[in-house]
Amino acid sequence: MKIQAMSNYFRRRFALPILLILILLLDGSLQVMLLKNLGEVNYSMTSSLTIIALTILSIYCQRVNLLYLSAIVIGFIFDTYYSRVLGVNLFIMPLICFATRYFAQHFRINFYSVWFWTMIVYLTYGHLIYFIFSIFNLEKPQYGIFLFQHLLPSLLFNGLMAFILNYCLERFAEWINK
């Protein structure tokens, strides 16, 4: 009985943050792999597994406070290691969770609606990061170059990743919620 209580406590308190940190690490490793394997092509792709996971888990997970706290911590870690502007993802990632929870109340939850919403969130995130980095003069490409050589190839890759992760993260959220 005591082992089951400890297992339930772990599942409710620590499984979600640990999964998000592992996804963040996998996201960084996948990004390095994409950069090395694409070589001399005329386009680039960015892995956004963290954004995808936060969006999907915001729909399925019932532990809202833990999700928001995890999003803040993941946003800080993301800014520290992967971004050049501290505080952008620290603010955007909890905002993604909040907006997703709000809009999920207004549409029917099924596999395709969750996938479509994840793609909307990814496109919004990509544009928002581009415009914020443009304001701080950290990114100089023209909008058309950004759109066709970076965002659209990344959208295809992340659309496939969201398609794969949707089922897995739904089952994970069911396990946490029970």
From TrEMBL:
Keywords: Cell membrane, Cell shape, Membrane, Transmembrane, Transmembrane helix. It is a multi-pass membrane protein. This is Rod shape-determining protein MreD. The chain crosses the membrane at residues 88-104, 111-133, 145-169. NCBIfam families: shape_MreD. It comes from Aerococcus sanguinicola. One of its GO terms (cellular component) is plasma membrane. Its main location: membrane. Belongs to the MreD family. It is found in: Cell membrane. One of its GO terms (biological process) is regulation of cell shape. It comes from the Bacteria.
